[in-house]
Amino acid sequence: MLQSTSIQYLKGIGPKRAKSFSARGINTIEDLLYYFPRRYEDRTNFSSISELKEGQVYTIKTEVLFGDQRNSWRRRSFSITEAVLADKTGKINCVWFNQPYLKEYLKPGVSLILYGKVELYNGRMQMNNPEYEFLDGEDDDSLNIGRIVPIYTLPKGASQRSMRRLIKSAMDEFLPKTKDCLTFDLRSRNNLLNLAQSLLNIHFPQDLALQKQALMRLSFEEFFIFQLPLVLRKLKRKEKKGIKHTVNGKLIEDFILQLPFKLTSAQQKVLEEIKTDMASGAAMQRLLQGDVGSGKTVVATIACLIAIQSGHQAAFMAPTEILARQHYAKITSQLAGLIFNGRKLRVGLLTGQDKQKEKIYQEVKEGRLDLIIGTHALLQEELNFKDLSFAIIDEQHKFGVGQRALLPRKGNNPDVLIMTATPIPRTLAITLYGDLDISVINELPAGRLPVKTLHFSQQNKEKAFAIARGELNYGRQAYIIYPVIEESYALDIAGAKKMFAELKEGQFKGFKLGLVHGKLKAKEQEEIMLKFRNKELDLLVSTTILEVGIDIPNATCMIVAHAERFGLSQLHQLRGRIGRGSLQSFCVLISDAQTEEARARLKAMVSSNDGFRISEEDLKIRGPGEFFGNRQHGLAELRLANPLTQMQLLRAARQEAIKLLNQDIRLEERPHQLLKEKLLQRFPEYEKLMLVG
Ligand code: ADP
Ligand code: MG
Questions:
Q1: Ligand 1 close to Cβ of residue 293 (< 6 A)
Q2: Residue 225 near residue 653 (C-beta atoms within 8 A)
Q3: What is the pLDDT of residues 543-570, one digit of tens each?
Q4: Alpha carbon distances (Å) from 211 to 162, 506, 525, 638
Q5: Does domain 263-441 have CATH number 3.40.605.10?
Q6: Cβ of 422 below 6 Å from ligand 1
Q7: Is 70 exceeded by the pLDDT of residue 628?
Q8: Where are the domains of the chain?
Q9: 295 lines ligand 1 (CB under 6 A)
Q10: What is the helix (H) or strand (E) element at residue 317, kind and residue range?
């Protein structure tokens, strides 16, 4: 009903309006009722002008004394509208930039409401660019003053007043007919308002306490609907028959014994979790979170050996060619001395540029390879396994959601381990990866010294080079990262190529320098990385191609040029390339950061080495939507709910989702019909999931 009635049904919405509303995602009455205010203004009492204080934000009700408009004398195209406004207690100046049409309305005697920050200008109170709302004396203003008033992000052509009127009239007609998708029992268990009350109070709160309750109820609903598909997928998976692995055996023991280090207790704990899953008859889908350098690869390698000793094959997918080759080199050398069933282990490498593709396909198909390591190339249709029982996806955030699902399909419900070095807070992990089980390595190997991070201005970059030279003189190695390959004069950014040539003849004359970036052929990239790894090169000039996974413990210094051009999590990943051994490492961020955001990022880097804290900070700076970059994750669906601040509510919603699906997995019972409709509307693929999954 609500979801099928177009907003054009409402008075005042013709085809043209409907179009601008549609651009904001409002097509139906339901969309409109779920179009929530961006903020509220308490207009039960206005502040009087005489009590305003500098630096504070106020809502005031005023009358125009005088209004005028002029063009800036510095920039002709820049218009400035000025007004003097007053209430019974005093006067205030207001200035608006580039809103020339305003002048027409700022006629003496006209009333308007202003919202903005008070500043002092030439000793007088002033508001710059305040939000305004004209009071139209003839109108019924009961929606606009004398109450807590909603402020919306406006569709084109709409005003706050028309928006309020529209929503109010939609509510008057449709609220009595709304049915609640949350059952009475569920609501009373969780102390939630019903839907009609919630919608009423989210738009036109009777008081702030009720607004808060409405917010809670509607956030709960969002979390709940978000969790249902995740929980369903998880329940379905547990039903499916997976492969029971032999998790303890000589091969594993031998491997662990010959490692040059002891596993940390966090690694051991996670390994136990993985073993439990792999031994069970259900298919594993586990997310392994761990900070950069926490030692995820060795855990993953052991899990591969579990698959091999159980007589199956394993696959290990990495996002870049460099990283795939590194894993291949390291793992083959670690496995070189091991004997299983009277033979050596057979490991293959498959990348996009491989000339021997056909041969590898054949070997994998016939089971002549135990483990195949590679890039996206592993997803190619031509690659078929004899018996894949375990798949690893390293640095999962570098793959699309669809890609992640492809590799496991090459086996018969294989166990899957998904790894990430961008750890996120638990509640957010549940929100996004609620269909996975989650393991965390929350400890670095013993003896690691935290990387010292410094921030230098552009002017002081020579000091940064001096630090790097110091490290090289001790026989250690360094990276210098530039944001681009070719320099940009327009943006005044140095590029890796040119700087390589300059540094070689200048600040680093006498040292051996290498250059690596994404435009080089894979073969060339590999040669340079190999030289660097073998210490034939002292310094590597590079782009962010080195961001993920690279593991060269002798590198103890990283300089990041134009650091303001990198995201926070990205900087942390880059820094993760050093500090990987027992030596003290140094990271120097060179930047004349201009924006507040960029400064916040650099500050976070200098003050913390902890990936969880960094990602939390990053989330705060960018918000979850930006942080995860693409829309596939559906975080945009959460309009009110915030997993970072409403953890309790999220947990409760997840518990209810589990409870409901355990009892009625297909949502067939009558009281669940409405919910099912809503779910199918939001997630059309849910139907398929319910039936097959
Ligand atoms: P990441 O979790 O970032 O993928 P890696 O798996 O590449 O980290 O491990 C980082 C480095 O730490 C590697 O050189 C690895 O050999 C080493 N390492 C792993 N586990 C331990 C441990 N328990 N003790 C000491 N060094 C370890
Ligand atoms: Mg790694």
A1: yes
A2: no
A3: 988 777 788 999 999 999 999 999 898 8
A4: 21, 64, 58, 18
A5: no
A6: no
A7: no
A8: 46-138, 263-441, 452-608
A9: yes
A10: strand 313-317
